[in-house]
């Protein structure tokens, strides 16, 4: 099981991310989030661990998929399908969020032929009836993996509560293979 924890590694695979925010109130939101655990908090910061689940590598004709339970994908149509998940961290009104992270341990998944995300387009039949059909558009990333392992978005409102989205994309390229943080 992977985890986001600072500074020690947790589990066989762990992604350590010290999420430092100018808040204390975020502790409650993080503590209840699936696969996230509060490590410590103070008057102007908190550190939490994100547990990255054990991967399932599903091999198929269209390529390999790295499946992480509870994760989806941020990949656009045509790009390699990479697992990802967003964690929303509560920020008190007027608070400022700053994120820092480290990878404390990773697993070498070896060489993979990643499945590309299919697209959908409209087609018209002989009878004039339209339907959608799957197709494989060109790779918008041209074979590269542009996603950062951890990225923070802009603070937004969830109801009346300011939150900052922390996006975790734990799969990265390493030479001819792939690593899972």
Can I get a quick summary?
By secondary structure, the protein is mainly beta.
Detailed description of the structure:
The protein is mostly beta strands. 4% of the residues lie in helices and 41% in strands. It is built from one helix and 16 strands. Strands 6, 7, 12, 13 and 14 form a five-stranded antiparallel beta sheet that branches. It has a three-stranded antiparallel beta sheet with strand order 9-16-15, with no helix packed on it. A two-stranded antiparallel ribbon has the order 1-8. β13 (156-158) and β14 form a beta hairpin. It is globular. The protein starts with 18 loop residues before the first strand and ends with a strand.
Q: Indicate the low-confidence ranges by residue numbers.
A: 1-34
Number of helices: 1
Fraction of helical residues: under 10%
Shape: globular
C-alpha termini separation: 10 Å
β content, as a range?
35-45%
| H/E element sequence | EHEEEEEEEEEEEEEEE
The helix-and-strand class reads mainly beta
Q: Describe the largest sheet.
A: 5 strands, antiparallel
Compute the gyration radius: what is it? Answer: 19 Å
| Arithmetic mean pLDDT | 78
> What's the count of strands?
16
């Amino acid at each position: 099981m992977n985890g986001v924890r600072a500074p020690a590694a947790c589990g066989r695979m762990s992604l350590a991310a010290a999420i430092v925010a100018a808040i204390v109130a975020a502790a409650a939101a993080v503590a209840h989030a699936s696969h996230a655990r509060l490590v410590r908090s103070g008057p102007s910061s908190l550190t939490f661990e994100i547990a990255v689940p054990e991967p399932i590598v599903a091999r198929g004709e269209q390529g390999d998929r790295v499946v992480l339970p509870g994760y989806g994908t941020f990949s656009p149509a045509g790009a390699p399908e990479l697992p990802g998940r967003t964690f929303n961290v509560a920020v008190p009104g007027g608070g400022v969020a700053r994120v820092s992270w480290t990878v404390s341990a990773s697993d070498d998944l070896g060489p993979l032929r990643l499945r590309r995300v299919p697209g959908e387009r409209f087609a018209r039949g002989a009878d004039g009836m339209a339907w959608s059909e799957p197709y494989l558009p060109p790779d918008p990333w041209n074979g590269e993996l542009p996603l950062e392992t951890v990225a923070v978005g802009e603070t937004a409102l969830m109801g009346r509560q300011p939150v900052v989205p922390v996006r975790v994309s734990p799969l990265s390229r390493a030479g001819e293979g792939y690593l899972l943080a």
